[in-house]
Design a protein that fits this description.
The protein has helices spanning 42-50, 92-96, 98-102, 107-120, 136-148, 166-183, 194-200, 218-223, 228-233; strands spanning 4-13, 16-26, 31-35, 57-62, 65-66, 77-80, 154-158, 186-191, 203-208, 211-216, 238-246, 251-254, 257-260, 269-274, 280-281, 289-300, 304-311, 314-321, 334-339, 345-346. It has 349 residues and is α+β, with helices and mostly antiparallel strands. The longest helix is centred in the middle third of the chain and has 18 residues, at 166-183.
């Protein structure tokens, strides 16, 4: 059995079902992200695990113990909120040690644990400061240390980085992952940011309309989406309508160009998809599908340039690396694009 087991969880608010038959097993020490748009149910699942919401149906087990009907304080769970939720009248050290004092631990033991946690989050010299004297990133580190100080079984992170600027978010998410791996704590991280989820997770649960639409590693979620929603939500994906020429042989036509997929296809039409990085400007070795189009847009992103081409009415995006001595084609230029048929995904309806 998984260390954290969520079985047939459901949650309704009145007549509205927010979470529908949610099932997930999380191993001890695993870092799992719940990814999805606002209103998909990801935070509601997190709050049910924490005990702040009571499931309409289903069970929650932690380390083999059913905690579904146990109060939040008795679940031994640490939680970090989006808005830090630090006590403004307490120092950093007092905030970190708050949960330990609630447990009536000895003063010497509390001081030692607080010192240890402040060292882990890189704020060893900030114990006497108050929250208002810290930056947003430092306050979130303190909130993380406070959640971890009582040595919880599970750590829950509810969009903890969304209030921070982009540069701080990147550095802090890396720190959170490093601390999680060092302590080996089972963690659920809720986010709507795809890059965050892809960069730090062992597994990702992509949620849509209250269900787990797909569960997998970041590699699987990005490269092998199993539903149209996941394909469209995670990363940038070109969706291309193709006419099936030979269903048994797996041959279709995109914008007038034949493509041999080598897989049995449904008759009529099919939706094919390709990531921008799978499409190359010009012809390339091993790229058996060549498409002709016209450049409509050029976006310079630094090391990468993203271009858009019109293939007979179908717009697709593709990437090329910046090369100072080879500027990208200008809008209106006729170009050839190539890709390997193996990089095309068949997207289910």
């Amino acid at each position: 059995m998984a260390f954290l087991d969520l079985s047939h969880l459901e949650k309704s608010f009145g007549a509205t079902r927010v979470v529908k038959d949610f099932n997930l097993g999380i191993d001890k020490g695993e870092f799992v992200s719940f990814l999805g748009p606002s209103g998909c149910g990801k935070t509601t699942v997190l709050r049910m695990v924490a005990g702040f919401e009571t499931p309409t149906a289903g069970r929650i087990q932690i380390d083999g113990k059913d905690v579904t009907d146990i109060k939040p304080a008795a679940r031994n769970i640490g939680m970090v909120f989006q808005a830090y939720a630090l006590f403004p009248n307490l120092t950093v050290a007092q905030n970190v040690g708050f949960g330990l004092r609630v447990k009536h631990m000895a003063r010497a033991e509390i001081d030692a644990r607080v010192e240890e946690m402040l060292a882990i989050i890189g704020l060893a010299d900030f114990g006497a400061r108050y929250p208002f004297q810290l930056s947003g990133g430092q306050q979130q580190r303190v909130a993380l240390a406070r959640a971890l100080a009582p040595r919880p079984h599970v750590l829950l992170l509810d969009e903890p980085l969304s209030a921070l600027d982009a540069k701080i978010r990147v550095s802090l998410r890396e720190e959170i992952r490093a601390i999680q791996q060092k302590l080996g704590i089972t963690t659920i991280f809720v986010t709507h940011d795809q890059e965050e989820a892809l960069s730090i997770s062992d597994r990702i649960v992509v949620m849509h309309q209250g269900i787990a639409d797909q569960v997998g590693t970041p590699f699987e979620i990005y490269n092998r989406p199993t539903t149209r929603f996941v394909a469209g939500f995670v990363g940038t994906l070109n969706l291309m309508e193709a006419e099936v020429i030979d269903a048994e042989a797996g041959v279709a036509r995109i914008a007038g160009a034949p493509v041999v997929l080598g897989r049995v296809l449904p008759k009529g039409k099919v939706t094919l998809a390709a990531r921008p990085e799978a499409i190359m400007l010009g012809r390339g070795t091993g790229r058996d599908t060549v498409l002709t189009g016209r450049i409509t847009d050029v976006n310079f992103l630094g090391s990468v340039i993203r271009l858009r081409a019109d293939l007979g009415g179908q717009l697709i995006d593709f990437d090329t690396f910046n090369a100072p001595d080879a500027p990208p084609p200008k809008p209106g230029t006729e170009v050839e694009l190539s890709l390997a048929a193996r990089d095309l995904m068949i997207i289910p309806e």
